[in-house]
Amino acid sequence: MVPFPKCYKQSSKPSKFCPGCGYGIMFKMLGQIIDEMHLQDKTVLGLDIGCSLLAWDYFDFATAHTHHGRTTATSVGYKIARPEKLVFALMGDGGGYAIGLQNLIHAAIRNNPITAIVLNNTCYAMTGGQLAPTTLEGEITSTTPEGRNAEKTGAPFFGPELIRSVANQKSYIARASISQPILLKKYLKSAIEKQLNDNTFSFVEVLSICPTNWKMDAKESFEFNLKMQKIFPCKEFI
């Protein structure tokens, strides 16, 4: 059994996430990296409004809540003030690609040396599973009961592809999935190393699952995650 990361506050703390939520897998990979690289004392995690904010209760290092969509901007400001810190901006697909997209794009253009992480579960998970920028065409949500219609609401949003097109060439951009945890860990570590060693912007989108809002069991959720990977390819964007 793989032990809980030492940077967790308590390994026995009950989860505040819905059963089957993918955040736990992503947090475990991130925690393992921080332990292995001995980065706990210099890590600061900016948190958006949404499911991501629950991270404050799991990691034993500095966290900061922000207004919805302002996590990237807040994290950039902190990094400017404390350049010796390892700074993350963690948000969902709504916080990253809807209300917070302007901040994310300009952090990439300026090559601000933070690591932004967007967890993509194709919906606004904390508020009832509404249509999000990344909702797949035909996908049923609480605000698209007949499935997303691209003619009415637009096509799914491709975050890493857009960020790569505007970001500094030295930056690191990737997409991974919680169903491939070893690859996810590799990409997260590469993003961290870019911030620390090259003083550049890095960004990782993480494809996740949301059984509660998708109204699926574990098997169905991971099958849907595989469908997501066919539409949103997991890779490094060079």
Descriptive key words:
37% helix, single chain, two-stranded antiparallel ribbon, seven-stranded mixed β-sheet, 238 residues, alpha/beta, 9 strands, Rossmann fold
Characterise this structure:
This protein starts with 22 loop residues before the first helix and ends with a strand. It contains nine helices and nine strands. The radius of gyration is 17 Å and the shape is globular. It has a single domain, classed as Thiamin diphosphate (ThDP)-binding fold, Pyr/PP domains (Rossmann fold), CATH 3.40.50. The model has no long low-confidence stretch (mean pLDDT 94). The protein has a seven-stranded mixed β-sheet with strand order 2-1-3-4-8-7-9, with helices on both faces. The protein has a two-stranded antiparallel sheet with strand order 5-6. Helix 1 crosses helix 7 and helix 4 runs parallel beside helix 6. Strand 7, helix 7 and strand 8 form a beta-alpha-beta unit. With 238 residues, it is α/β, with parallel strands linked by helices.
Could you give the topology of this structure?
Blueprint: H1 23-36, E1 43-47, E2 62-65, H2 71-81, E3 86-92, H3 93-97, H4 101-110, E4 115-120, E5 123-124, E6 130-131, H5 150-153, H6 159-166, E7 172-177, H7 181-198, E8 202-207, H8 211-214, H9 218-231, E9 235-237
Parallel strand pairs: 1-2, 1-3, 3-4, 4-8, 7-8
Antiparallel strand pairs: 5-6, 7-9
